[in-house]
């Protein structure tokens, strides 16, 4: 096994549980809480699940749009946008390079949402949670593509870096940088997630912080990934199910694992403190209709 896939397995699958176990061991001497935790608001978990699915679909659409749009502006290429992919006819040497524009677009989108979440966090719980998931999706949907591209030349980023003349060593270096960024950004997002706690007792000990992260990010990410599947069928099982599940595991794993040592940001508490379910449900229904009715047959550009 080459270095890039081995490092990917270590960082994505082995690292988070080991770090979480270390955190539990380190926190064993933490004084017990003086009062029981306030009752959990399961509405927050449900809203987070819906917003994960909404943010995933919107981010994926942006990725495919920015894969199609540059090709539409390129002589000789005639791209078609679908609900779960894109395709094109014609020929131009730049086509391979343009396979990297989608990942670049959502990386920028995720970075902008993360910056906004940090500098201008929305007041409402739902809006702040949505911005969190938009940052999450943009970052953790794009960065793993650089890792996969190091050993899978048919991957979008792999095709772009091959066109740019990246050597195998350069691709491996890019993959390792992306893996380090995944861990660092997950650790950075964690305190912004803890800032959503409406009750101080939800996050007043390391174990409670991990439980809060599980209820607001870990569980919603896995459930939200399953909720995404109807938006992506019909299609190959990898495109329909494995991609959203992989994004959920890669990002939320480190957020959950690092929550024991994270401290919430000093951003003002959300107001109102309860998440709403109606707007995310309506937005998801609208996106599903657009995906399956408008985009599924394909829209031709150029």
Descriptive report:
- Helices cover 66% and strands 4% of the residues.
- With 302 residues, it is mainly alpha-helical.
- Strands 2-1-3 form a three-stranded antiparallel β-sheet, covered by helices on one side.
- A hairpin with a 4-residue loop joins strand 1 and strand 2.
- The chain starts with a helix and ends with a strand.
- The mean pLDDT is 94.
- The chain crosses the membrane at residues 6-25, 46-69, 97-117, 129-151, 171-190, 211-231, 237-257, 277-295.
- Keywords: Membrane, Transmembrane, Transmembrane helix.
How would you sum up this structure in a few lines?
Keywords: Membrane, Transmembrane, Transmembrane helix. 66% of the residues lie in helices and 4% in strands.
**Strands of the largest sheet, in order across it?**
2-1-3
Structural class label: mainly alpha
Describe the largest sheet: 3 strands, antiparallel
Domain module count? 1
> Roughly how many Å apart are the termini?
42 Å
Taken as a percent bin, the fraction of beta residues is: under 5%
Oligomerization state of this entry? single chain
Q: Share of helix among residues?
A: 55-70%
Sum up the overall morphology in one term: globular
Order of helices and strands: HHEEHHHHHHHE
State the total count of DSSP E strands: 3
Radius of gyration: 20 Å
Q: Quick check: average pLDDT?
A: 94
Count of alpha and pi helical runs:
9
Low-confidence blocks of residues:
none
């Amino acid at each position: 096994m080459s270095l890039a896939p081995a490092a990917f397995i270590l960082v994505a699958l082995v690292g988070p549980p080991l770090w979480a176990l270390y955190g539990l061991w380190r926190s064993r001497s933490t004084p017990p809480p003086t009062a029981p935790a306030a009752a959990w608001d399961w509405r927050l978990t449900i809203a987070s699940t819906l917003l994960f699915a909404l943010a995933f679909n919107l981010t994926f659409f942006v990725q495919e749009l920015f894969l199609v749009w540059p090709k539409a502006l390129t002589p000789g290429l005639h791209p078609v946008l679908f609900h779960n992919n894109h395709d094109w006819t014609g020929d131009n040497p730049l086509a391979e390079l343009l396979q990297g524009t989608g990942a670049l677009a959502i990386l920028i989108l995720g970075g902008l949402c993360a910056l906004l979440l940090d500098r201008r966090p929305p007041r409402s719980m739902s809006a702040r949670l949505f911005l969190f998931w938009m940052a999450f999706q943009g970052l953790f949907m794009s960065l793993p593509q650089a890792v996969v591209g190091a050993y899978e030349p048919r991957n979008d980023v792999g095709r772009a870096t091959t066109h740019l003349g990246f050597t195998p060593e350069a691709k491996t270096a890019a993959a390792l940088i992306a893996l380090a960024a995944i861990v660092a950004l997950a650790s950075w997002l964690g305190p912004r997630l803890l800032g959503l706690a409406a009750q101080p007792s939800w996050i007043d000990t390391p174990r409670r912080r991990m439980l809060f992260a599980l209820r607001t990010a870990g569980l919603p990410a896995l459930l939200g990934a399953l909720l995404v599947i109807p938006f992506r069928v019909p299609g190959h099982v990898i495109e329909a199910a494995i991609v959203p599940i992989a994004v959920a595991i890669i990002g939320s794993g480190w957020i959950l694992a690092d929550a024991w040592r994270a401290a919430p940001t000093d951003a003002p508490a959300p107001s109102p403190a309860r998440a709403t379910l109606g707007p995310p449900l309506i937005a998801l229904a609208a996106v599903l209709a657009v995906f399956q009715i408008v985009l599924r047959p394909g829209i031709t550009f150029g």
